[in-house]
Amino acid sequence: MRCYLVCYDIRHPKRLRRVHQVMKGYGEPWQYSVFFCRLKDIDRVRLQADLQREMNLKEDQTVILDLGADEAKAREAVCTIGLPFPKPGSSTVVV
Fold first, then answer.
1. Which pTM value belongs to this model?
2. Rounded to whole angstroms, how far apart are CA atoms 17 and 70?
3. Around 40, how many Cα atoms within 13 Å sit in the side-chain half-sphere?
4. Distance of alpha carbon 55 from alpha carbon 50, whole angstroms
5. What per-residue confidence (pLDDT) applies to 80?
6. N or C end of the chain: which has fewer CB within 10 A?
7. Is the pLDDT of residue 94 over 70?
8. Residues 62 and 7 sit within 8 Å (Cβ to Cβ)
9. Residues 15-31, mean pLDDT to the nearest whole number
10. Phi and psi angles of residue 16, each rounded to the nearest 5 degrees, phi first
11. 14: left (phi > 0), else alpha (psi -120 to 50), else beta?
12. Taking the CB of residue 85, how many other CB atoms lie within 10 A of it?
């Protein structure tokens, strides 16, 4: 498994809701349009296909950043300013 940070900018509210629903099936929300995901290779491919199906590729953008295989190091590599991210397994507030 590898860790990914997925960030998206979707221009239409209906597509935005659908992309957000897709992402909730793959990872934990860190912010409304930012997710942390631990994925097997096949799930990484499925995630991309699911996102491409919901997006307008001429208007929207998604960035998938590979943070590596070590989850602890991947989480440590992310710097937050202000409120910290919730600990894994705790309730997450989406703003």
1. 0.84
2. 30
3. 2
4. 9
5. 84
6. C
7. no
8. yes
9. 96
10. -60, -45
11. alpha
12. 16
Residue 33 · residue 7 · CB < 8 Å: yes
Query: Could you tell me the CA-to-CA distances from 68 to 21, 39, 55, 61, 79 in Å, in that order?
Result: 24, 11, 26, 22, 16
35: phi then psi, degrees, rounded to nearest 5: -125, 145
* Residue 78: per-residue pLDDT: 84
Spatial distance between the Cα atoms of 50 and 81, rounded to a whole number of angstroms = 31
d(CA 61, CA 76): 26
Distance CA 35, CA 7 (A): 7
**Token pair for 18:** 């659908």
Which candidate, 47, 48, 62, 55, places its Cα nearest to that of 7? 62
Q: Which two tokens stand for residue 19?
A: 């992309």
